[in-house]
Amino acid sequence: MASDQLDYRFDRRVAGSYDALRGHPAAVTPAIGEALARELGTGAQVLEPGVGTGRIALPLIGAGCEVTGIDLSSEMLAALAGQARAGLRLVRGDITRLPFADSAFDGAVCVHVLHLVDAQTVLAQLLSLVRPGGTIILGRDWVDPASFAGRLRNAFRQAVVDLAESVDFPTGARGLVQTLVGLGGEPVDNGEERTAVEWETTLSPAQVLDGIRSRDDAESWVLPDPLLARVMARLDAEAAASWPDLEAPQPVTRRFVYSLFRVPAA
Ligand SMILES: C[S@@+](CC[C@H](N)C(=O)[O-])C[C@H]1O[C@@H](n2cnc3c(N)ncnc32)[C@H](O)[C@@H]1O
Fold it and tell me: What's the gap between Cα 157 and its chain centre?
């Protein structure tokens, strides 16, 4: 399977369930906004490429920033437009061709989007669209790799690598940091990830397996049916051998983490 065959469509199926599947707990959402707004500056004009349903944009506005969100998916934007508020501007467009003026923004925030596009093309534009001295944030949801959910996630990726004829997983967080540094972004703390907020959830192995099986995330929804069936057969067997009661809830530590960059002086 070549990467150019991957089909990440944020259509009605995904848009309708995105917040239910990916949303942060109510107590966590404002903490993400406050942590990012502290880095960007209160009142900052912020660009969010791939804004989706506003999972990050809305708490940023809640913390005092003004956000311009751009997204290709009219369904994702429609879900966000229903929560319209002062400080939010929405644009439908392709983030590989961002339609904004140089230095139009004080900062930019990218969360779970650069793996879907040519990251270098987007990041190069952000270095022009954010003013010199401004801030670029690369954020992501983190799941404790030592938790059962983290172990299942790694087992999933290993099974895909082993069972697919060829696979090209998207660039991870470290690769994105290197790309932005290569383009001239100035990393704060060498791009080491900071934690905006940490929380704990409880989930059962059966729930995580069902989520992968029902293609709840981009990594599983792009797999062809026969490959997903073979991957699941292996994962089900590994899970049964590891956890005697697949329905028993277990704690999982999660975080929202981000790397911080400054745009160099012109
Ligand atoms: C996984 S969602 C992340 C949404 C949001 N950043 C978040 O963390 O909740 C990825 C979003 O990127 C959008 N997207 C993917 N490729 C795009 C492109 N070339 N131009 C604009 N938006 C794009 C999708 O439509 C989707 O809304």
Answer: 17
